Amino acid sequence: MKKILSLKELSERNTGLTSGHRACSGCAFPSIIKMVVASSDYPVVISNATGCLEVVSTIYPYSAWNVPWIHVAFENAAAVISGVESAYKVLRRKGLIPEDEKINFIVFGGDGGTYDIGLQALSGAIERGHNFLYVLYDNQAYMNTGVQRSSATPFGANTTTSPPGKKMSGKMQHRKDIIEIIASHEIPYVAQASPSHFGDLIRKVRRAFEIEGPKFIAVLSPCVPGWGYNESETVELALLAVETCFWPLYEIDHGVYKVNYKPKEKLPVKEWLLKQERFSHLKNREDLIEEIQKRVDEEWERLLRLDGQKIF
Amino acid sequence: MKTETKKIVAKTGNEAAAYAMKQINPDVVAAYPITPSTEIIQIFSKYVADGEVDTEFIPVESEHSAISVCIGASASGARVMTATSSQGLALMHEILYIASSLRLPIVMIVGNRALSGPINIHCDHSDTMGSRDSGWIQIYCENANEVYHTIINAVKISEKVNLPCMVTMDGFIVTHGMENVLLLEDEEVREFLGKREPLYSILDVKNPITVGPLALYDYYMEHKRSQLEAILKSKKIIDEVFEEYNRKFELNIPSFIEEYFLDDAEIAVIAMSSAAGTLKEAVDLLREKGERVGILKLKITRPFPYEILRKKLENVKVAGVMDRAETFSTMGGPVSIEVKAALYPAIKKPVIQSFMFGLGGREFSLDDAFKVFDILKKIKKENKIEEEFIYIGLRE
């Protein structure tokens, strides 16, 4: 296992994303991106799905990227990296790129471009076994177009296409389990991480870079306008998601489940929910909060049961 | 090189295309199976499996991903090819515009096929005509031999102008019809093409570039104008590349148009792809009777060779334009509308009759070709057009 880098060491490395990007104040993904890129010991090439990250970092004629970066469309970031990585392989084989020039290939995609419209291209790229790390920054809705529900949006959340009304109380479906979907491709490494536990996040990224083949890391990315909280509370929101076990930290390394963090005292999910504007309409809906809690508990118990087990 | 020493073999359009790909030995090929172009990729897969090419072959999960892979690979400096048809091309539609606006050389072979619905696997041009304004160069080939030679030229053109290029052939009629193909040697093809020398590559990690940024009203229009500049410049390059090829290999592969008894023709038919072959046969027979008829085979529709058309049709009295795709504009098919637009500013121009034929693989026979000429002769005699467009071979 490669050395775990300290934040100080990371801060001395190229983070890929320079200052001057136009992400909202308090947005989680600039920190996530920087930690991921700085965790690479080799140069990186990035493919980015359409979304907030692409829009805020590349307003022509400016670019906040100081590493090679390509954006093509919303749903094909994984297919694009397949092409880039394949070109790298063949050009190296033909001697047009030096044999010792190692590059880490990364995709950044939001939840819409990953759980929904981009799922097919992602599944295809993983099945074909391309060597890349897919990093999902999951802010749980289509934030770039004004907070519409995605299949990552949690049950009960208020979005502009799942608004609470007389008949419904926000989104009435639970979110897709993206980790299980990806894991069922039997890929070498899948993990869930949070920017609040940056040591864990960096370790996971560095572990992923060690492995040849497709890797996937889902990172929770709190969103100030989408979730509705004070911009200074981003890390706290991410932390609470982990402490309530709404967003457990775990990994599946070559088929072996590992829960990376077990809170000493599992906090009620309500504490995370009611800190956010998007769940404020649930204040007097104990029944719905109970349903969310039940789901969180079941999932957490399932993970604890699987901890240490080999699933494929 | 003398033509006699060249190898003439029997190949279908798909086989000829796959063979050209083998000789080109592209760096990356990504494709998804779709009738009738599937065979190209099947044959190419075997070349890959047998180690006859060094290509990274990516059998993707959709055409949308096929073209996306091609973009990623082309932006990385690789020589890239793919093949598709019909619904597959339609599924790529969104990404076609991005490939051309990123100025990425990619050569796509298209086996022309009708678009659903109703679902139909046979030939018409509704697929590529639907992609006509996507910023790709579009070349329509008449037969397997033309397909083979045009693909080789397309690689060079595409890389010289930094624009993607479609080379098309009629589904089943050419994709599956066996014909004589005059082959070059592998080394000749490779020497003609040389290595791709990209202007930029996203694999150049020491000189990072941002590809595909956001450009709003303050820059989008300039991007489109500069893209048009590339298309304008491509006209000269297309001619130069075909000329170099024909000179080098003593061949006569047409670039923008091919003339057939057009010099003294009073009546001409403007046609593309395999239909041009049938019409040439009709012209041969009519010429025997002393009729002054001819064909202008339109081979490239993007960029549209309007200057050539104005010049070549100057002395023609009546011209028919054959279309194999509907526009539902109620003015006829896309080619006839464009030909009319191209000729409108000309002082001397023919009267133009639009024809629709061959949709969804409907046969276009020699009798149909005669019917076209009969209608044009009647127009010439009576000096008037009665119908905006005429469907040929329609069951009424």
Explain the overall architecture:
Chain A has 12 helices and 8 strands. The mean pLDDT of chain A is 97. In chain A, strands 2-1-3-4-6-5-7-8 form an 8-stranded mixed β-sheet, with helices on both faces. Chain A is of the alpha/beta class and 312 residues long. In chain A, helix 4 packs parallel to helix 6. Chain A starts with 6 loop residues before the first helix and ends in a 6-residue tail after the last helix. The longest helix of chain A is centred in the C-terminal third of the chain and has 21 residues, at 286-306. With 396 residues, chain B is α/β, with parallel strands linked by helices. Chain B has helices at 13-24, 38-49, 63-75, 86-101, 126-130, 144-161, 186-193, 220-249, 275-288, 306-312, 334-343, 366-382; strands spanning 7-12, 28-31, 56-59, 80-84, 107-112, 137-140, 165-170, 178-183, 210-211, 257-260, 267-271, 293-298, 300-302, 318-323, 351-356, 389-391. Chain B has a 7-stranded mixed β-sheet with strand order 3-2-4-5-7-6-13, with helices on both faces. A 6-stranded mixed β-sheet of chain B has the order 10-12-11-14-15-16, with helices on both faces. Chain B has a two-stranded antiparallel sheet with strand order 1-8. In chain B, helix 4 links the parallel strand 4 and strand 5. In chain B, helix 1 runs parallel beside helix 2 (38-49). The longest helix of chain B is centred in the middle third of the chain and has 30 residues, at 220-249. Chain B is globular. Chains A and B meet through strand 1, strand 2, helix 4 and helix 6 of A and strand 3, helix 3, helix 4 and strand 9 of B.
Short overview:
The complex is a heterodimer of chains A (312) and B (396). Chain A has 312 residues and is of the alpha/beta class. Chain A has helices at 7-11, 29-38, 52-57, 77-93, 111-116, 119-127, 178-183, 198-210, 224-228, 234-243, 269-273, 286-306; strands at 44-48, 69-71, 104-110, 133-138, 189-193, 215-220, 250-253, 256-259.
